[in-house]
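W.,

You were right to be curious about this one. When I first looked at the sequence I had no strong expectations either way, so I just let the prediction run and decided to look at it fresh. Below is the sequence, 251 residues in total, followed by the output.
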Amino acid sequence: MIFILSKILLFIIKPIVWIFVLLIFAVASKQAKQRKRYLICALIIFFLFSNGFIVGKIINSYEAGYPRAGKYDIGIILGGFSGLNKRNNEIAFNWAGDRLFQAIALYKKGQIKQLLLSSGNSNLIDRQVKEADLAIKYLKLIGIPDSAILIENQSRNTIENARYSLALIAKRNPKAKVLVITSAWHIPRAKLIFDKQTKQKIEYYPTNFSRSTEFELSDFIIPNASALGTWEMLFKEWIGLIGIKRKSWGE
């Protein structure tokens, strides 16, 4: 039930949904003054949440930086970076594909001995395809040996990523030096979750930073559709952090 409610919440926190609802109220309103208020509110929300500079400054201050260079026994790659391309039944990488690609680069440079793919399926309807299973096929295809690959394909969210991955590491190599690899904006929440479930020190490696640290004139004055998505992502992370701190484990 909590898992389903979290999916509903992800829909409600979208700024574009708020704008759409306000426009519906404006159209349905019979009073001109009230209709005007709804339209003004919709415009204010649109311009505020579509401003690239505002969201850029906030997300840049929130995203994690790089850890000090070192070598690790296991790199845990958190899922959400791919899906199934049903046209050819092969893996299809999405906007978070950098999680896997950066992990591969770290392995190739000798900074990680083993890659632990941590991801099952978070789909509410089709639960058959496991992301980690798709990714392991890709790693083998590009020449990563079986001895360098560990797999955890049961997790549906970050909390389960931590629970199942740490349990697997405890069985195989309890003294392993661990690096968690995930999106820069995801690290604050992932760190809180992992640190709650283990006493060992874990480092975190950021990937696919959401926005540039430099801004152009257009970022100040021209509405940006991607800014709406960035706010949605931030709201999800902040709500997740609040839930974790209140011991109400969300996605």
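Here's what jumped out at me. The chain is about 50% helix and 15% strand. And, maybe more interesting for your project: The first strand starts at residue 72 and ends at 78.

Coffee later to discuss?

I.
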